[in-house]
Amino acid sequence: MRTIEAPRECDDCRPDTPDDANRKKAEAIAERPAAPHRTALCRPLAETLRPAGGLPNVAAVSNPRYTLRSAAFVTVYLAAFLIAPIIPASPLAPLVAGGVWLTAQAGYGLRRLDVILLATATAVGATVQGAGLLMSITVAVWAVLPSVLFAVLLERLLPGYWRGHGDRFRRPAVAVATLAGIALLTAGAAAMIGAVIDTGSWLAVPFARDAIMLFLAPLAVNTVHRLRSPRRAGLTVVR
Fold first, then answer.
1. Could you tell me the pTM of the whole model?
2. What is the pLDDT of residues 119-137, one digit of tens each?
3. pLDDT tens digits, one per residue of 141-153
4. Which keywords appear in this protein's UniProt record, sorted alphabetically (predicted)?
């Protein structure tokens, strides 16, 4: 006896079910060209407006807080530079003001701009005191190099020390000894450059003054930040 099979239903002739309709809509949406997203349009513009390597960020430079702080540091530094020849033992030395300037402004990431401002302020101060163009540039080099050295060494050897961070992971005696070494090295570099510029100058007093003030300034700022920060309980081991 021969069995007669039922005719197979054609997929094209079969009426669409709700699932088939949804699948066709999904395929149509997937094949449709996607509209450009707003982020995709803005990314090339952002890449174009982004400063090239070495140039300061326009948004950071236009920060009012950074602008006011920079103006204050320029004023204080010029005052220290102009007072230094009159009062050699003044604690507000140009090297101290420059080192504190570059260290305090490190959080904005605009050190190159700060160095340019420091060199310009030094050259202006030297010009006001009667120095020529070449001498003003030389004095600017004398002021910038030790200040940059101080800021870089403090940032590398004692990261976060200026803001009172990382003290829980440092031994106080080691941190103080490292800070003293940084201050002595910076003051020694400034004294060596000053001896090359002016061979007849007496550098014992400026060396001692710069070393002491470069040591005390970060120590005082670190102490203030630690006193203002909330006390944290010691680490405990949970077994």
1. 0.68
2. 999 999 999 998 889 999 9
3. 999 999 999 999 9
4. Membrane, Transmembrane, Transmembrane helix
